[in-house]
């Protein structure tokens, strides 16, 4: 196991990480820059930088090169999104400072945590530090770090450093989500279907599934037979099997070649003859995911998001007023808030700006697509 030793000054680490993150031109650059700067200070033995959907906190991708063995990922995501545990992302999201140390959250009794019992202890890890990366508009990702049994424990200085990363890295990730959205291209690959058993092992997959996942970020150095499925697939499969969950659940993830990919999972009420418990369809994401992410990144309220979507469909103020049950004056107030948050002055500017930033690349060959950086 690699050890990332060395000690640097804790003071100023937040500023250094913020500068590195702001200079990143892609989420992949962001992963590398953050890891490079925090490694000497937080001295982790296992590390993952994860992106999440700001609406649901569902896993949408990340850098797992220094993370858990791929064989452990189905169980890790099952605990996160189906079973639940101390210090999970939904727990962090409810805190004023979304930083947590598993040993503290369990009052030192780590055996209370299924994540510790089933994953950390077998791998000889003593603790896990998590940082939810969010700004005033929502949560955009997380850092997950672990230390081995023969490493010193995480302490108050590390927690202070982690707290200093929350807002600057959250804002940088929000910007990069919009940048990535503006650069996506439409895929012509046919949808794929994956059937998973009760342990999230693949029972059957159509041939097109591999085509959706063959270009995932940071898997080039992992043998194809050891990669398994992307964590986001295990996450949505686990979520649909959580107690009280609806029989289906939709999420998304990112692929370099195909852009935003929709994941739609169904819980199979009766096991098939192949013992499949969950079905996941993989296909190109549509306008709903795109609008939801744009709305979250610009900090639109649910009502503002709905009105923006109607404006993009060409609906008049009177039409919006009738369908939303609002007075025309209230609709105009919401529209003004949308204009202010997206940096435009009129309906025409709103439609044109969002079209150029986030829809035109889908209709333009990659070589000639406009390379505009969205204002945030």
TrEMBL record:
Keywords: DNA-binding, Transcription, Transcription regulation. One of its GO terms (biological process) is regulation of DNA-templated transcription. It holds the Pfam family GerE. CDD domains: LuxR_C_like. Residues 293-358 form the HTH luxR-type domain. It comes from the Bacteria. One of its GO terms (molecular function) is DNA binding. This is HTH luxR-type domain-containing protein. The lineage of its organism: Bacteria, Bacillati, Actinomycetota, Actinomycetes, Kitasatosporales.
